[in-house]
Design a protein that fits this description.
single chain
Length: about 290
């Protein structure tokens, strides 16, 4: 998909910034151009956020830059996953086309890059995109891993850092920690822990209240959390109803929403719901992109 004339001028301007050898733009005219573009760059997708964070770095606003990255780190993975629109906008496409250079620039900026290192860990743990994993994976994160127990590091992204700490524990110690629901509330666990770590020894009917809340407030994520068979069994015993009935109908109902399309499609395929209508909807979605 080509860019329109107006978008092409912006793309060419930002392309020049991305390939610049400088870490800070001091030329008043170029700075004014970046500031003007910043007002237009959305923060809907991961790529757009990385681009906007980088542009703030280039004009010397390190605080605004890091705040954007912290926003990613403090958002549960599921919330970040469903925000990619279709069709992709100009800034998302530009960032994706220059993702290697963008990540390299963010990693080398002469500021405190602990936030960047945490972002690399976030992508490593919650994303499957080969390009993102390859480019972020080239940067060592050992320095931040050694500091995960520090309060300052936890303050950058509390729930994500707690997840990383839990991940490194033995199963016995992890389960013991997670039973301390004052420190690890169910809402935190359902968003950050249950779908990503082995929690089988922890599963009990006491989780049913959180599962019922999820079903009511975020049914799509509820469907994903229910990948754990023991959780699904605990839900069924407490509620007196099976998890699966009605889920296909729900997933079909949200399929037309571009932001939820891929997440709902994945589950429909997993549930064996392959039919001509679903195939056609997929083709139309990919065509829009």
């Amino acid at each position: 998909m080509s860019y329109g004339e107006k978008d092409r001028k912006t793309v060419d301007f930002l392309g020049g910034i991305l390939t610049s050898q400088f870490n800070l733009i001091t030329d008043p005219k170029v700075r004014a151009g970046i500031i003007s573009v910043l007002h237009d760059v959305p923060e809907e997708t991961l790529a757009e956020k990385l681009l906007k964070s980088y542009l703030y770095l280039m004009i010397g606003n390190i605080t605004r830059s890091d705040n954007i990255l912290r926003g990613i780190l403090r958002t549960p993975p599921a919330k970040n996953w469903v925000r990619t629109p279709a069709p992709a906008g100009t800034y998302h496409r530009l960032a994706r086309e220059n993702i290697e250079q963008l990540i390299k620039k963010l990693s080398r900026h002469p500021a405190d890059r602990r936030v960047f290192q945490l972002l690399a860990k976030y992508v490593e743990n919650f994303y499957t995109d080969p390009a993102l994993l390859e480019h972020f994976g080239t940067y060592a994160t050992g320095a931040i891993e050694e500091k995960l127990d520090l309060k300052y590091v936890e303050g950058l992204a509390p729930e994500f850092v707690r997840y990383l700490r839990l991940k490194d524990l033995s199963e016995e110690r992890r389960v013991r920690r997670l039973r301390q629901t004052r420190n690890f509330p169910w809402a935190m666990q359902s968003a950050w822990v249950w779908p990503f770590l082995d929690i089988d020894p922890l599963v009990s009917e006491s989780m049913s209240e959180e599962l019922q809340r999820l079903e009511k407030e975020d049914e799509l994520w509820f469907v994903y959390v229910m990948d754990n068979e023991k959780l699904a069994d605990a839900y069924s015993k407490k509620s007196g109803k099976s998890f699966l009935p009605g889920r296909r109908q729900y997933l079909r109902s949200i399929l037309p929403e571009p932001r939820l399309f891929m997440a709902s499609l994945f589950k429909l395929i997993e549930f064996g719901d392959i039919n001509p209508e679903l195939t056609q909807a997929t083709v139309e979605h990919l065509t829009r992109e």
